[in-house]
């Protein structure tokens, strides 16, 4: 975070995540879903800063009392970190095996990665809740797994639109995007 932009991007990402994550839907007592937006944050900030930004957003939400302190480790380790790792990992794989093209960056690294990230997050959350027996398997299936298709496309669309707007109008704001690599053809 040496440049003024990265400090601003970090602060804006942290605030945006905190606002978006408090807009959750509580399916039943103790079980809620929200959009992640971690794919966009990982593309904008990179892997390490996105880990810090998501941690900061969770700490901010816990500090103001919107989430319980006891759920912070589970949320970050089970839902957030794997989604960031998947998004950034898909970026690295696409850089190696796919042509460097604007549409590849937008559709694979943003749209597809976001859909896969929310899928992984919900499935890991369901697995964790099943292993810890906090909810009955029927409740997990009924309330969490059935919501997966309803969360998948909007999450992908939200991330895809955000990255598309940034790449088109302010490409320097996206740390993982380089004009020379993606637009020289």
Automatic annotation (TrEMBL):
Subcellular locations according to the entry: Cell membrane
Q: Where are the transmembrane segments?
A: 35-64, 76-93, 102-124, 144-169
Which superkingdom is the protein from? Bacteria
Give the GO terms filed under biological process for this record: transition metal ion transport
Q: What is its main location?
A: membrane
Q: One cellular component GO annotation, for this chain's record?
A: plasma membrane
InterPro entries, alphabetized: CbiM/NikMN (IPR002751)
Q: Which UniProt keywords apply?
A: Cell membrane, Membrane, Transmembrane, Transmembrane helix, Transport
Q: How does it sit in the membrane?
A: Multi-pass membrane protein
Coiled-coil zones = none
Record's protein name: Energy-coupling factor ABC transporter permease
Q: Which organism is it from?
A: Neiella marina
């Amino acid at each position: 975070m040496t440049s003024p932009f990265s400090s601003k991007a970090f602060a804006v990402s942290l605030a945006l995540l905190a606002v978006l994550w408090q807009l959750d839907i509580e399916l039943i007592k103790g079980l809620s879903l929200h959009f992640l937006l971690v794919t966009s944050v990982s593309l904008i900030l990179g892997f390490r800063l996105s880990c810090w930004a998501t941690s900061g957003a969770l700490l901010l939400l816990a500090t103001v009392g919107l989430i319980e302190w006891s759920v912070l480790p589970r949320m970050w380790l089970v839902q957030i970190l794997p989604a960031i790792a998947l998004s950034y990992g898909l970026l690295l794989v696409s850089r190696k095996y796919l042509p460097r093209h604007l549409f590849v960056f937008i559709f694979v690294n943003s749209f597809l990665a976001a859909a896969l990230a929310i899928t992984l997050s919900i499935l890991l959350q369901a697995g964790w809740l099943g292993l810890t027996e906090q909810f009955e398997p029927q409740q997990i299936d009924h309330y969490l797994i059935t919501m997966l298709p309803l969360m998948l496309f909007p999450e992908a669309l939200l991330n895809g639109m955000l990255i598309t707007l940034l790449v088109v109008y302010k490409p320097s704001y996206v740390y993982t995007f380089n004009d020379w690599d993606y637009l020289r053809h």
